[in-house]
Structure prediction request, 316 residues.
Amino acid sequence: MSLLSQEHMLGLNGYSEQDLITILDTAERMREILNRPVKKVPTLRGLTVVNLFFENSTRTRTSFELAEKRLSADTLNFSASGSAVSKGETLLDTARNIEAMKVDVVVIRHKSPGSPHFLSRHLDSIIINAGDGRHEHPTQALLDMLTLRDKFGSLKGLRVCLVGDISHSRVALSNIIGLKTLGASVLLCGPATLIPRHIERFGVEITHNLDEAIQNSDALNILRIQLERQSTGLFPSLREYHKYFGVNRQRLDKAASPLTILHPGPMNRGVEITSDVADSDHSVILRQVTNGVAVRMAALYLLAGGRAPSPESKPE
Ligand code: CP
Prediction:
């Protein structure tokens, strides 16, 4: 049984303020485990988690795997390349076959928005969305929020600006939902072609002027230009994008006080962010990655901990 109001983590939509606080508080406790000499607890012993990745990943996949191992779950890694997917097997058949091997939790990354929701209707396993197309990436937003909470103490009233390719970003929507739920104000900054129409209904503000965004923010979460998800040229060139929306030291130096810099990765250095910003003292980019393991441990524990057999249970 889940310790949250939701059985799965399909997105942050539907998660209450209390749910999000519980996850962040639990992640802080998980982080304490990661600082021990022996970074392992038996919490999920007996459970099996499959990491079903149909798209490439560095951070999300490795941190889920580490989180599962730190909690003593058995982990199984699946990549679409080299699997029967290349022979035409459907997502549902693949997932059902893996579940038939007695899996308890499915962590899925897929290019199709809604694929985790689809699996949740057809499988008995707990489903965690590790990124579905341009839709949501809930654990990324949670680790972003934990990193901001570490820095500022609270998200209430914090001014966070998401800069860049909002239209093609799954990180953006999960951040908007999570940040608004926890009381932050959210500003979006990018070219009009990369900001979805009607996004204001989520209670966000929009600017197309990066200098104005910098003046009105406490933190910038700089999003990658997702060239692989763009079918037509939505800005003239990367050089021009960088000129108007690239975050560099010169621009940040004009702010009244230093801004905290986040980036979910992978970064296009020299396009949306320059190296002097990415590697500066105000960058928390690697702390986001560290927090990724703790947040994923928290999500796994809160969603699946109730299914773990008690230490006394013995095979019949
Ligand atoms: N932030 C993120 O999702 O990175 P990966 O694609 O490396 O998992």
The first strand starts at residue 48 and ends at 53. The pocket of phosphoric acid mono(formamide)ester is lined by residues 57-61, 131, 137, 140, 264-266 (CB under 6 Å). The two ends are 23 Å apart (CA to CA).
